[in-house]
């Protein structure tokens, strides 16, 4: 029995829908249906009661589901531990980047670490903030370098080590109705004449101060795409001074935001129980 069948079954049972399971598992809906039928054939009993609109677990399916959840949890943890240990054996640390510009403040630190530990390979891969915790949990990344707002890293099993902080500012094109403002108030944000682009990292923090209409707030999951999309459309961008210095969009005007506690904290996320000692060695050098 392939492990994918158990993942498909667990998702379908939890969501009571083959369609939702297909979306979550990133496969076509017929693949879920075929997998469940194959699973039932192997088991020798039906796990679902099907009607035109809904699915529900059979009594046998309920018993099976309860144990499958435990099995998948143990399997995921086993894979996670093995990947951590494999990275240690192979003397490597996998670092996820939330856009290249997010690494700029880290360059001197990374260079110094490499000089002190030349035998350790630093492997970089791109990731989005919306999936960075999944990347850490799965072992795809040991560390994530990213920005976040002060209230965005309350997780029991993931540590966040702040390294620096920057003020969250507004980059405004000169043709905007906000360009002549000395500073930007929450009322000004509501009355802006164009769309605003913001990293998903900052969205909840900003919305706690001002209810910008959803159709006007364009959520980006990548630092470079944030600025590229904002600049190309001549829109307003929530950004930091260091990011603006990096992208050199000279005709944009930087504005402070009034009445919003807006700090973008730059740092690293890493798993509390990572079994790769090199990760903790890296963190301790920061």
TrEMBL record:
Describe the location of the HTH lysR-type domain by residue ranges. Answer: 1-58
User: Where are its TM segments located?
Assistant: none
- Establish whether keyword Cell inner membrane is in the entry: no
Pfam annotation, one family = LysR_substrate
From which residue to which does any coiled coil extend? none
Any GO CC annotation of this UniProt entry: cytosol
Q: Sorted alphabetically, which keywords does the UniProt record give?
A: DNA-binding, Transcription, Transcription regulation
Q: Which InterPro entries match?
A: HTH-type_LysR_regulators, LysR_HTH_N, LysR_subst-bd, WH-like_DNA-bd_sf, WH_DNA-bd_sf
The entry lists its GO molecular-function terms as:
DNA binding; DNA-binding transcription factor activity
UniProt lists the family membership as follows: Belongs to the LysR transcriptional regulatory family.
The record's PANTHER family line, in alphabetical order, gives: HTH-TYPE TRANSCRIPTIONAL REGULATOR YBHD, NITROGEN ASSIMILATION TRANSCRIPTIONAL ACTIVATOR-RELATED
Under what name is this protein listed? Transcriptional regulator, LysR family
Q: Give the originating organism.
A: Peptacetobacter hiranonis (strain DSM 13275 / JCM 10541 / KCTC 15199 / TO-931) (Clostridium hiranonis)
The root-end lineage is: Bacteria, Bacillati, Bacillota, Clostridia, Peptostreptococcales
